């Protein structure tokens, strides 16, 4: 397939073939709490396969054996699980996995440069992950387009049509030498979008990604944006997230209308050895027929799930325990990448 002029970045709520994850192991940063984080991966896998297939990247045969043991131990059948053996530095596939564009003619696996969130961590193997998946025959006849520009999947949101939503804080950190206008043009060209909406405010303490949009604000069906709010005036996030909420109120749809806004409740601070962890309810995952919502063992968990369920009518809401994930400063959406319907080989 050659690049098609009608390529677009589909919305996450469009039909999917599978969800892609990488299994944690002792060679990743999860080593110190491996058993704990495996419980989240197992719960996530069990939730996904209720609705669609799951592709699991494993580093070697031993990691595959560990993953199979964990999944079978949870009572899961592996009929809808496909394993692929590839090396990886860590398991944040939202940022190292393929950003798949679709068109009437097929698919384009858009493979941006992955720099370990601006050089914070080693990323050589993760940067080669998309090419490895292509070589392994995971995908059907999709074009593989390498883009020599740093961008992570968690840094962008698509409405499935003309619009991409992102944050200035993140992309300015990745490309401090480039103007907003230059980055805007690169995003529109590489993602085949007509416009980019930028947020200048919003962050979560303990977030390594420099304010990825998928921790802050998410497009939802019906020209809606679901976003992380903070209703505690004593919390250091309050003023910044209030500024972000104000920014969202002035954004307009392609038709010039205000977006329907759904604020999410604020989880109480989660601390680890004096370090604040980034517990965002905006980091949910949409799959076929359901939306998987992070749960942190907080009193706000159920209300967050209710609000997200309203934003995605007709889908089952499944809570996934994600407290182990925020130890490494990410959550449910960060460890997954959806694969659009028709992509798999």
TrEMBL record:
Q: Which UniProt keywords apply?
A: Hydrolase
Which terms does the record give in the GO molecular function aspect? agmatine deiminase activity; protein-arginine deiminase activity
Q: Which Pfam families match?
A: PAD_porph (PF04371)
Q: Which residues form a coiled coil?
A: none
Keyword Cell membrane listed = no
- Highest rank taxon of the organism: Bacteria
Q: Name one GO biological process term.
A: putrescine biosynthetic process
Q: Which SUPFAM superfamilies match?
A: Pentein
Q: What is this protein called?
A: Agmatine/peptidylarginine deiminase
Q: Which organism is it from?
A: Frateuria terrea
